[in-house]
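This follows on from our talk about sequence and fold. Please put the record directly below this note.
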Amino acid sequence: MSSFADLRDRTLSGVVMAVLGIGAVWAGGMVFTGLVCLLCGVMIWELTRMLDPDAPSGKAEAAGFTAAVALLVFTLQLSGFWLLGVVALSVALLAWRFPKDRGMAAAYLALILFAGLGLIALRGVYGWDWVLWLVLIVIGSDVAGYFAGRLIGGPKLWPRVSPKKTWSGTVAGWVLAVAIGWGFMGVLGAGAGLIVVSVLVAMAGQAGDIAESAIKRHAGIKDSSNLIPGHGGFMDRFDAMIAAALMVLVLAETGVLGLVRTCVGAGC
């Protein structure tokens, strides 16, 4: 039972976040955009505290606030190449303020901010049901991995970076992604290719989880913060989500997502 000692706090926090998230996804517009920008700002605050622990008071808060406001303004005022360009410039400027680990900081800053763009674009272009699909893929993979890893156990996936991750949990996440993709084919009007896309998104989420674990190990800390009971910080909770959202953005920009959505008649 000790393996499930954190399950109560984890579940309660998850329910609260799910209710708020589903409400924002349903509302769309400025409500959803504002929430995404806020989350990105909080995660950048956490990242700054992790990689620049000796920073003067207020530096992390300023970085998070600046990033959130900038992302909101850029999203509302720009589009296309200009939007991508100014976000990339923002990443470079924010990363330059780190006294060390600038490459690592830049990579994760880019992940956070471009994933934010991906989530906002997915809601605006594809609709709330596609965002719900993405959220369920990430949450389902995490839950499947959590229980399979503790009930089945077995070989570790990458013990040096993420000691708790097992192959059984990883594969369980893929299996549940297949089930969710199959279940959403009719809802999203997508072909069987959605099943493959769902697995790719789940894999990206798992990679995001491992990437954040690597940063925490590098920084010598257990959690990105203590803001969420049972989960640690927002990076701890949304590390998989932002990586999955970035994967969806890539699939959308390369036309794969549109192809999956339009090839129902061909059975693809």
